[in-house]
Amino acid sequence: MNFFNSLSRSKEPVAPLEAGHVRMYTCGPTVYNFAHIGNFRAYTFEDILRRAIQFNGCKVTQVMNLTDVDDKTIRGANAAGVSLQTFTAPFVQAFFDDLKTLNIQPAEVYPAATDHIPEMIALVQRLFEKNLAYQSDDGSVYFSVSRLPQYGRLAHLDREHLRVGARVADDEYEKEGYGDFALWKAYESSDGAVVWDSPWGRGRPGWHLECSAMAMKYLGDTFDIHTGGIDNLFPHHENEIAQTEGATGKPFVNLWMHCAHLRVNGEKMSKSLGNFFTLRDLIAKGYTGREIRYVLINGHYRQPLNFTFDALSAARSSLARIDECVDALTELAASQKGVDASNACLAEFTTAVNDDLNIPEAFAALFALVRESNVALSQGAVKPQDAAAILGVFDKMDTVLGLVRFGRMQKEEGVPVEIQTLVEARAVARATKQWAESDRLRDLLASKGWEVRDGKEGQKVKSLK
Ligand code: AMP
Ligand code: ZN
Q1: Which CATH code of 3.30.300.30, 3.40.50.300, 2.102.10.10, 1.20.120.640 fits the domain covering 264-407?
Q2: What spacing in Å lies between the alpha carbon of 217 and ligand 2's midpoint?
Q3: Is the CB of 39 under 6 A from ligand 1?
Q4: Residue 289: is its pLDDT beyond 90?
């Protein structure tokens, strides 16, 4: 496996600190709203990364934090007139439901920032001891970037323009305005009831501090991979490096990986621009989690991806092509034991995945297998044991893609596409516990003359006519 390291700006082989075990940290959601599909581009990229590492026989320990205290969550809770916890809890649950809808494998640990305030305070204390932190007149504590020689390495900042002592209190800011950043923010009346005691007075942690403290707690002073969307690279990840390396004197992370943005009409999809769709918006329009996953993973992660509804329609037909082929092979392979077939397509697939997650090439290998299988099937040239072996290759590929087998129902004889689509939308509604939506789809199916039953192996539909 060779992955592009944002730190060295080159592809590097993955060499985990512990052989056969990759430890990785991924910046998780700020739980002040439903995540949009731009956020899910980052989470599906990280899911593919995790699956690709497992595909190569390595164990993965992934930590994904939940940012449940920052400028945005505090603003939201105070606007709603409820406690921070009451405000964030439903968005945390929604996030976990959405991960299931997209077949994203769960991380091993989901630490919430508000459960780790003592660790954050301890980290700031260490930075004081190293003379890297200072308290300003307003009571907030800042990191002094001019005192850490490696500050700016990840983002390639020009240190000559560093304005010594200039400070930024906000969690997010531009490269041009960089300066000392807040580790601990002194209490302000706009914080409402969100406040903790610290040796420097009442206040709350800065966003960057949260990730450093939680990453170190669960993964150690140094670990293998840290990921996020490209917008996290500066200032968030630069500041994480500063805090952790400043405190420990050791390298923080060996490999930094960032995905490019999901865009709409050439602009980053974001809450602030208002050009976003949540996963729920698209499910309500009748698209399945499987189709959305297809669109989100079908591009190189370091290239911007433009979101369009045409891409969702194209995903529907591409998935139908895979399904038809897999169904024909399954029929043929029924009750036969497969043989181990080394397959040129699998080799191409593996090479593509291991070359910095080249998923477009990996899909090309998968569709080559679809094409070749279809030709052989139409000529009656596939023996049952060959069919089983080919299906084995699809399954192996699917450990990385999470698409082929996910969210599918057994195709019933003579079930029209329209009915299949409704049944699959209902599967998503059920997986995300949207019971009212699930009932609505059941009624809609009934009105079209189809009965749906829920069994152990998923849903079965029967014509009522
Ligand atoms: P946030 O909840 O804003 O902290 O973002 C969560 C994750 O989504 C971070 O890794 C961001 O970098 C990522 N992200 C936000 N917007 C986009 C986008 N349009 N495309 C890809 N990733 C994004
Ligand atoms: Zn983070």
Answers
A1: 1.20.120.640
A2: 14
A3: yes
A4: yes
